[in-house]
Amino acid sequence: PAPGTIYYEGSSCIIQWNSDTTGTWKNMTIDLMSGPNLSMTKVTTVATGLDGSDASLTPFNWTCPSVTPCSAIYFYQIYDSSTQDSPSWTGRFTIASPHGASIPPPNATQPNGEAIPWGFGALASNTTSIPLPPSATAKNDTNPTTATSSLAAAS
């Protein structure tokens, strides 16, 4: 997926990549992620053991989970499980409610100032709702790391 793509909870989410012609990506893992660029968090594992060189496996379809919040804060991290080197990422996309409801990303810019909206997401079944008092604000700490990418994730 690319920025602007909207998927719906409970519906098919499509992941497409350019198949690996080098034969390196024989044991590919796809994780659903959220968070800022330098402190990503895994929401859930989508698939493991995929042969990234097998063109018949792309596009890959799976059922979008129920998440919180429904927003344009989700992306995929794709890497070869054998080496865990050189992960690749898609652009951020929206997972909306089955009826299309979503909220804007909670953060308009990355912690380093880049104009890439983001937020932290989770599976709805793994969260509990605890109301904050009206005067409270939520703060997410970041732990910067660096990462590079070599596999071209198409969408």
UniProtKB/TrEMBL annotation:
Record bears the keyword Signal: yes
Short name of any one Pfam family annotated for the protein: Kre9_KNH
Stored InterPro entries: Kre9/Knh1-like_N, SRP1/TIP1-like
Region Disordered: start-end pairs: 97-155
Biased amino acid composition, Low complexity: 145-155
Domain (Yeast cell wall synthesis Kre9/Knh1-like N-terminal) ranges: 1-95
Keyword Signal: yes
Keywords: Signal
Protein name: Yeast cell wall synthesis Kre9/Knh1-like N-terminal domain-containing protein
Annotated organism of origin: Tulasnella calospora MUT 4182
Lineage, opening ranks: Eukaryota, Fungi, Dikarya, Basidiomycota, Agaricomycotina
